[in-house]
Write a structure and sequence with these properties.
94% of the residues lie in helices and 0% in strands. By secondary structure, it is an all-alpha fold. It has a domain of 73 residues. It is rod-shaped and about 150 Å long. Keywords: Coiled coil.
């Protein structure tokens, strides 16, 4: 009877070791799956952040180009207006000084 009890005790201990080993294996597998999932999630988030950053950069660049074009057009318009005023003043002054130089006092 004692031998049976010892045998049962040994069997119980062996079963406990097997269960512990199986539990450790299961835990290792779950940890590996969790790490893989976290890695995938991190890659997805990084990719999303990159895409969002690229879109924001693209939008910013697009707005900067639009602003630069508006400034350029406005500058060209202002330069044209200034050149036109300069031409009028220049002609007027040339006529005035030409008349003064030639002695024509009809100013």
């Amino acid at each position: 009877m004692q031998e049976e009890l010892i045998e049962k005790l040994i069997n119980i201990e062996e079963d406990a070791r097997k269960l512990k080993a199986e539990a450790e294996d299961e835990i290792d597998k779950l940890e590996q799956k969790y790490q893989e999932r976290m890695s995938r999630e991190e890659r997805v988030r990084i990719r999303e952040a990159q895409n969002k950053g690229e879109k924001l950069l693209g939008d910013t660049v697009e707005e900067a180009v639009k602003y630069a074009n508006r400034v350029k057009k406005e500058s060209e318009r202002e330069i044209g207006e200034n050149e036109e005023r300069y031409s009028k003043i220049k002609d007027s002054l040339l006529n005035k000084y030409f008349k003064i130089i030639t002695g024509n006092k009809g100013v």
